[in-house]
């Protein structure tokens, strides 16, 4: 297959941040064996194509994680976890064939069930809001998949994916830094903040300095079969409750005063910040403020009551530093689609921090991740545990 990407590749130096790592930078980066995580989408396909053009020995690898039947969640929206996995593997295989590179599929279903599905169930059952994509990246895509591939006898120097992010080696500290993508609309650094130094040292993100439009243009000009394929935006293609394996558990919906104003059929049907679907008549719009698992109640309130400025974050993972100062200023992102907010963080334990938002109050969802940034670098992050103040 003749590649037609030299014009696009000429843009890369201007998009690279100073000191940024790209596939092909430095003597040790040439002529590598690189395994590319193939999802069947355009981003991973172009990642493989770019690395092949740079002269590396490329192989495509995918993980098989779906354990359900073809009927389970059939006909629902496209997702990472669902019965359309076979179609995605077929598409990934077709891309690898068109590139002339070998392709391998590895069964990671047991690890996925243990590390992602059970985590997802436990968080919802505990009235918390999970983020399975973050756990999957940390435990499966950048860990179990690579260990399974290596255990099979496959050998490679680096692992590449189609994520929109960048990695930079800080020569002063020797740490690998996780940086935002050039395309702010596609940046996925939030989902990667739990990766460790040993993982970041082995990873390449070939499309991190490209826009989505550039990626699709490269795919089109090279006849990549999935150049126009839509993106997968969801974790599961069916109703989340299908995964929880729980029965109906009726309880009260209460105001912050404790007054009962309705009934619910299970805490897992609600998330903090939710406004629609409460089915309660009230003079003002009501929002879910918190889920009280101990008393099996959904606590609701008005817009003024839902937001807070201070909360606790634990289970911390640091990237830019080995250990942070006792307090530090940073911007923080509370959801992948949220804007960063100026904040002040104070360490209140070895693995916990108190975060105070500087200029706003926000709905806080325990179980979600708070990720700290210094400019375009990820400092680190952790799991939101509880609110601490108004």
What does this structure look like?
With 390 residues, the chain is α/β, with parallel strands linked by helices. It has 3 domains: 6-236, Rossmann fold (3-Layer(aba) Sandwich); 247-306, Adenine nucleotide alpha hydrolases-like domains (SH3 type barrels, Roll); 309-389, Elongation Factor Tu (Ef-tu), domain 3 (Beta Barrel). Helix content is 24%, strand content 29%. It contains 10 helices and 22 strands. It has helices at residues 6-9, 12-15, 42-53, 85-99, 109-125, 132-151, 197-200, 212-221, 241-244, 303-306, and strands at residues 20-21, 33-37, 57-64, 79-81, 103-107, 158-160, 166-169, 176-179, 203-204, 234-236, 251-255, 260-264, 287-292, 297-301, 307-308, 310-318, 327-333, 341-349, 352-357, 362-363, 369-374, 377-389. The strands form 6 sheets. A 6-stranded antiparallel barrel has the order 16-19-18-17-21-22. A 5-stranded parallel beta sheet has the order 5-3-2-6-9, with helices on both faces. Helix 3 packs parallel to helix 4 and helix 5 (109-125) packs antiparallel against helix 6. The longest helix is centred in the middle third of the chain and has 20 residues, at 132-151.
Give the spatial strand order of the biggest sheet: 16-19-18-17-21-22
* The CATH topology of the largest domain: Rossmann fold
Q: What would you call the shape?
A: globular
Distance between the termini: 60 Å
Number of domains: 3
- Given as residue ranges, the uncertain stretches (5+ residues, pLDDT < 50) are 5-28
Rg, Å, rounded: 22 Å
Would you state the CATH class of the largest domain?
Alpha Beta
CATH arch. level architecture of the largest domain:
3-Layer(aba) Sandwich
pLDDT averaged over residues: 88
- Could you say which structural class the secondary elements and strand pairing correspond to? alpha/beta
- The count of β-strands is 22
């Amino acid at each position: 297959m003749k590649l037609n990407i030299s014009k696009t590749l000429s843009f890369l130096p201007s998009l690279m941040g100073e000191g940024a790592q790209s596939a092909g930078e430095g003597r040790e980066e040439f002529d590598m064996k690189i395994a590319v995580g193939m999802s069947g989408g355009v981003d991973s396909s172009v990642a493989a194509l770019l690395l092949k053009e740079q002269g590396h020995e490329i192989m495509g690898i995918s993980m098989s994680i779906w354990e359900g039947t073809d009927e389970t969640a059939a006909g629902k929206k496209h997702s990472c976890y669902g019965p359309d996995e076979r179609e995605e593997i077929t598409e990934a295989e077709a891309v690898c064939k068109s590139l002339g590179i070998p392709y391998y599929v590895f069964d990671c279903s047991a690890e996925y069930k243990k590390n992602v599905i059970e985590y997802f169930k436990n968080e919802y059952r505990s009235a918390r809001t999970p983020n399975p994509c973050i756990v999957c990246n940390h435990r499966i895509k950048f860990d179990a998949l690579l260990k399974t591939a290596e255990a099979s006898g496959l050998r490679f120097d680096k692992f590449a994916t189609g994520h929109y992010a960048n990695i930079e080696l800080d020569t002063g500290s020797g740490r690998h830094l996780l940086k935002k993508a050039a395309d702010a609309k596609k940046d996925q650094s939030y989902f990667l903040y739990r990766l460790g130094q040993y993982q970041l040292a082995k990873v390449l993100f070939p499309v991190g300095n490209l826009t989505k439009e550039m990626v699709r243009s490269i795919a089109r000009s090279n006849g990549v079969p999935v150049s126009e394929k839509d993106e997968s935006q969801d974790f599961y293609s069916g109703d989340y409750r299908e995964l929880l394996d729980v029965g109906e558990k009726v309880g009260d919906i209460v105001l912050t005063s404790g007054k009962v104003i309705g009934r619910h059929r299970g805490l897992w049907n609600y998330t903090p910040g939710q406004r629609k679907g409460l089915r309660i008549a009230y003079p003002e719009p009501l929002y879910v403020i918190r889920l009280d698992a101990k008393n099996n109640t959904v606590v609701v309130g008005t817009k003024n009551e839902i937001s807070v400025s201070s909360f606790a974050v634990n289970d911390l993972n640091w990237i830019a530093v080995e250990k942070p100062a006792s307090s530090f200023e940073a911007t923080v992102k509370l959801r992948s689609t949220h804007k960063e907010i100026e904040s002040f963080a104070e360490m209140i334990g070895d693995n916990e921090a108190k975060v105070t938002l500087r200029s706003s109050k926000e709905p806080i969802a325990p179980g979600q991740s708070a990720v700290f940034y210094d400019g375009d670098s990820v400092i680190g992050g952790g799991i939101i545990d509880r609110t601490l103040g108004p």
